Amino acid sequence: MSELFKQLEGVPLGTVKPSSEILDSIAWNEAGLIPVIAQQAESLEVLMMAWMNREALEETLRTGRVCYWSRSRGKLWRKGESSGQVQRLKAAYLDCDGDTLLLNVEQTGPACHSGRRSCFYVALGKDEATVISDPLIDPAILYAKR
Amino acid sequence: MSELFKQLEGVPLGTVKPSSEILDSIAWNEAGLIPVIAQQAESLEVLMMAWMNREALEETLRTGRVCYWSRSRGKLWRKGESSGQVQRLKAAYLDCDGDTLLLNVEQTGPACHSGRRSCFYVALGKDEATVISDPLIDPAILYAKR
To answer: Which among B8, B39, B103, B124 is the top mutation candidate for probing chain A, defined by the most A β-carbons within 10 Å of its own β-carbon?
Structure first.
């Protein structure tokens, strides 16, 4: 853990630091990424988990529109650029060791590429796993050329 | 994405598969791990993000007590084994491509090693970052020899 995050453990509530200093101390992984959890504002439903590099995080904080790093495509991914289902940033939080980000977002429609509201739709028990939600929109429509 | 998770995108709500088959299809990373989000049951507050290997996940599903894989210590980490702040599993969900797990848990006291309820206590804005919570318990007490 960086010295800065170690130091923040003990500071008073309300302590403020420049964001640039915080970003310098984030524990980016070997690919320069951190995992990002997106949670719907108000309902607090967890919608998805994706990844950001520093450029994606800076753009997200600057524009208020959530931008991830697509590991499969190897480029910035402005959520909703092909589906229209954008995420607006309400708040962002780093965890205690600066290696995970939690976003409060306003998600338009489905967050999941399958057309479901949330990506977490396979309930996993000891013996059985169950599909617990249906698509809101057929993905063939979601990703049709517009 | 595995064939199984691809197939689950299109199956009817309520479709059931054996958990062993699902676990065989999880997209474990190069270290054999997946990221795990822990969310407090009912309040839906996101408490922490950690990692599991297959052994940790199987133990968690079998016992109902959440067990992670500690990357820093290189061993199974039964949450609360040194702090007493255990997590009881209420439900587990895999995401659409089988590479992230979301847990609903009942967390006793703080989830964070700093003594705070949640690990996500650094609110990150465009220009400034702010510490937004105080420890519930002094970590010196939390980790004192018992």
So the answer is: B124
Burial of B13 (0-12, 13-18, 19+ CB in 10 A): exposed
Distances (CA, A) of A95 to A1, B35, B87: 11, 14, 18
Check if the beta carbon of residue B19 is closer than 8 Å to that of residue A126.
yes
Say yes or no to pLDDT of B86 above 90: yes
Q: Which of residues 58-117 of A touch B (CB under 8 A)?
A: 61-62, 91-98, 100-102, 112-114, 116
Instruction: State residue B82's pLDDT score.
Output: 87
pLDDT score of A145: 57
Amino acid at A45: E
Look up the pTM and report it.
0.96
What is the CB neighbour count within 10 angstroms for residue A98? Answer: 22
DSSP tally for chain A: helices H, then strands E = 4, 9
Judge: B129–A49 Cβ closer than 8 Å, yes or no.
Answer: no
ipTM of the complex: 0.96
A91 Ramachandran zone, left/alpha/beta (phi>0; psi -120 to 50)? beta
